[in-house]
Known about the structure:
heterodimer; A: mainly alpha; B: alpha+beta; 31% helix
Amino acid sequence: MLDTVYGALMLLYLGVGLLFLAAGLWVSPALNRWARVLFGAGLAAHSAALLGRWWESYHLALGHTPPAHFSEKLRLVILQAPMSNFYESLVFFAWCLPFLAILTFRRYLRDYLGTVVAIAACLLLAYASLGGVDSRIKPLMPALKSNWLLFHVLTCFLGYASFTLGFGVAILYLVNERRPRPTLPSLPELDRLIYQATVIGFLMLTLGILTGAVWAESAWGRYWSWDPKETWSLITWLVYATLLHARLVKGWQGRRIAWLAVVGFAAMLFTYFGVSFLLPGLHSYLT
Amino acid sequence: MTSIRLTVFLLLILAVLAVVGTVAAPNIYYQVWFLAPLGLLALNLLACLVEGLPQAVRKTTRPFTGEMALTLPERGRFTWPEEAKASSLAQEAMRRELGRPRRKIMDDKEVFFYSRGRLRPLGPYLVHLGLVLVLAGGVVGKFWGVEGRMLLQPGLPVSSFELDDRKTRPLAFQVQLDRFQVFFYEEGGGTPKEFRSDLTIFEEGEEKGKFICRVNEPVVFGGFTFYQSSYGVMPLGAVPVQVSRGDKRHTLELLMRRWTPLPESEFQFMLVRVEANLQGYGPAVQLAFRSGAAHPQIIWLLRKQPEWADPRVGFRVALGPLNLEYYSVLQVKQDPGVWWVYAGFILLLAGMYIAFFRPSQRWAVVLQRGKGGRWDGRLLGASPRGRETFAIHTERLLARLQGGAS
């Protein structure tokens, strides 16, 4: 049932993306308004679908381990958050994009910028629905049974999503610099948005790495083991640390910052997809 | 040593080396190629700290005074009529938009001033200090920590563990495995649900307590931490196997990795592996047999399907009663560096919060009697970073002040 909902959501985000695109091409505030309303509705439906899967997953787990007290129930709720395999991570990643966009740059969520966000969310859902990803809810293996699971995945994917927004804005910056468009925010505004997305993403990625380290310490007795996923998240972190130093200490702005945001995004993509498929390690249950 | 160029260069070098590590050289992280730039980065961070921290502390502790407030750049002007209660109006506007301002009268001017984000200059230094602590924690763990593994069979107390370099390290207490259990999900296709070691710890013959060690739930005792790492099964004693050739039948008692001859023949048998659950088919043993010095052949015998026969070999093999026992492998660790690392994490996060979300912002409202006795007001303010919230507050404050007297 939920699979159908995600299929419909994918089409909805595609529609929203096209509406935003039309709004940008024909400078139409009315189309923008419609696209934003639909985008908000999509996010609401997406949230409901996430909660639905959470509910389903919790009830399946109730069958495996009936909890005795309220505290055990609460723990089971936390453990069964729908973030424990590749499919669930894709769907959650897709949710983070409109969520963060509406939270952090609502005013600019229109025209081409709106298109970028909606299409990114659509692509992630398309991969989840059509890419042959196993969407079944599976019981948790012992290593994943930790309260850190929720916070680790939550912070990592909010970070990924924020970097994705930064990448989208960076691309718009580079395009706008060559061929200025009236419906895009000004270059300084885009530059500030890249920085803002980077700061949020950096803080979230840091939290994600730290919660992962604390979790690994309590599960395996090692806060850092140079597992490929860990190493690549560190590489991503180093790239964005470079961006922040270049900007805050050296005063870099504009094109060079945009290019660094593109490089950081590539590193993040490899951390998420590349490592899972090419480099086996501690995170291999994600595939 | 403190130049930003060196920092960025080192960050990029480390990133490139880390890429090389994940693709081609998984051990690079423990070699000088990686540790040298990492050490340089630590020195670079320390140098930045030594150079900049005192100044940042001075900046943070220097009080914001009325005189300093007057030097802030101007952000807007307003005028109020002569009879306006200027003092309380200005104070009220600032209190509503920002917070309670301080007040100072200087000559003919009355100044209300307010600042927030005073800790901002410390932010980056806290981040760097946190990183230095994390790296220091790694070094402490490397030199003063120990790590190893402990194999436990039910009922046999163990008072030492094996380090990574195969040396044995004694413990001042005994760890005994009372029971190891592994649970599987019913319809999970063999997905394990829980690994659990029930332990009793003794010290000088006295029971010190019972513990349950699970994945994600380590046991801490006597300064050491025990993690459920892996498990396996071993047979209780020898494994009986019946070998029939024609109408002759022999029972062999097989041991791990030891050739046992089949009487009246050239053949030898050996137990190679024991599995509690071979791909969902239940307990199984793997045997090897060979004729003389020929290349050995390998076969699996399941408890559910205990017989094996091959007409080319000319005998049948049947597994006798199989008594298996679980053993448990615990990871044993003592790492005094972990607390350094965690302290570093806290500083890192606190520093990031201050640096990115608590920008330093200052405002001042200056009141002065102008021509004809009316009030001339000026709004001053500055925020080197975090311009957006500053601009919003400034705009709203100015609107309040300009509309204030009406």
